[in-house]
Design goal:
Elements (H helix, E strand, L loop, with lengths): L4 H10 L3 H8 L14 H12 L10 H10 L11 H16 L14 H6 L21 H6 L1 E9 L5 E9 L2 E4 L7 E3 H9 L2 E3 L16 E9 L3 E7 L1 E2 L8 E2 L3 E3 L3 E3 L13 E11 L6 E8 L2 E6 L2 E5 L1 H5 L3 E8 L1
Parallel strand pairs: 3-7, 4-10
Antiparallel strand pairs: 1-2, 1-6, 5-6, 7-16, 8-9, 11-12, 12-13, 12-16, 13-14, 14-15
């Protein structure tokens, strides 16, 4: 289907996500009763059912690609796209379709990252439409991937907490060290993401009620971790123009079992473990790269390279240049 390896790798991860697979195999979404035009959830339903049926032929996800493009026309072209952006967009579209809405976002109106991360079911024909609360939404994509990030602002002088902001998200993007470093550790990237940092002073900021200081610090962490945790390693650096973009090829070591408790609001009081089940990889350079995926299925690991599927050992997975990591709560 042209330059769609970014979609193929994301689909392999979605087809290996237990909660999503169970939802569609149990026919929780009735394709025959769905009234949404070009429904991506219906197309994903058909794809997953075919993926778990008997047979060895490669699947062509043309129906899903068409439904996604119909809803997200900003992505409707034959150019290579970012796999993480594809994941956010596809989840956002399918989420809205499950709620009975058709996004139909047109090319001239770019997709805002905030809207994608919050899974807000935007409807250009209904400016008053709104998303259900992330804690109460029964959509399988909210139930699987959505967590809540907490930004805590505290006085830098006395430590008194001044305010807390909650934000729904379907995963987090973490910085990858650049420069002279040749390798990094995922846990260090997560520590940097959740580390407390100073917030630049502002004359409009209210003084601390305890000590009257206007200097604040900020720490972002998980208030609620999702069942399926998606971590995106930011390998593309620079401006939005291709001429100023560059790829960071540093190898990031990632564990097969991750304890996320140090990155939560409650700290490391109680361990919270997640098992790795999918790794999306970007190889090559920015101008001519290729996406593949490593998928864990029935205790074994497989390399999924478009229509080519090969069983591999764990060491090959560990040495992969990860772009996206998918973890399942144990």
């Amino acid at each position: 289907m042209g330059n769609t390896c970014y979609l193929a790798s994301v689909l392999q991860a979605l087809a290996a996500t237990p909660t999503v697979v169970e939802f569609f195999l149990r026919e929780r979404h009735e394709r025959g009763a769905c009234g949404v035009a070009s429904c991506a959830a219906c197309a994903l339903d058909g794809y997953i059912v075919d993926a778990y049926a008997e047979g060895e032929d490669a699947l062509v996800a043309s129906e899903l690609l068409y439904a996604w493009w119909e809803n997200e026309q900003s992505m409707a072209d034959e150019q290579q796209h970012d796999a993480h952006e594809c994941f956010l967009s596809l989840v956002s579209v399918a989420h809205a379709n499950l709620l009975g809405k058709s996004l139909r976002r047109k090319k001239p109106k770019p997709v805002g990252l905030v809207a994608l991360l919050s899974l807000e079911p935007l409807d250009e024909d209904d400016e008053h439409s709104s998303a259900p609360d992330v804690d109460s939404c029964e959509c399988i994509f909210h139930q699987s991937f959505a967590g809540v990030l907490q930004s805590e602002f505290a006085c830098a002088s006395c430590g008194c907490v001044t305010s807390t902001i909650r934000e729904a998200t379907v995963g987090i993007s973490v910085d990858v060290p650049s420069g002279a470093s040749k390798s990094a550790i995922l846990e260090d990237c997560l520590r940097d993401f959740t580390a407390r940092e100073m917030v630049e002073s502002s004359s409009h900021r209210a003084a601390c009620a305890s000590c009257a200081s206007s200097n604040l610090s900020k720490r972002m962490c998980f208030e609620r971790v999702p069942k399926m945790l998606n971590l995106h390693l930011k390998r593309f650096e620079g401006g939005f123009e291709s001429a100023s973009m560059r790829k960071n090829d540093i190898h990031v070591e990632f564990p097969f079992q991750l304890d996320v408790s140090p990155y939560t609001a409650n700290g490391a009081a109680v361990a919270s473990f997640y098992d790795l089940y999918a790794v999306v990889v970007h190889s090559g350079v920015l101008e001519g790269g290729h996406y593949t995926a490593y998928i864990r299925r029935a205790g074994a690991w497989y390399l999924c390279d478009d229509a080519v599927i090969l069983e591999v050992n764990e060491e090959e997975v560990r040495s992969a240049q990860a772009f996206m990591l998918f973890y399942e709560e144990t």
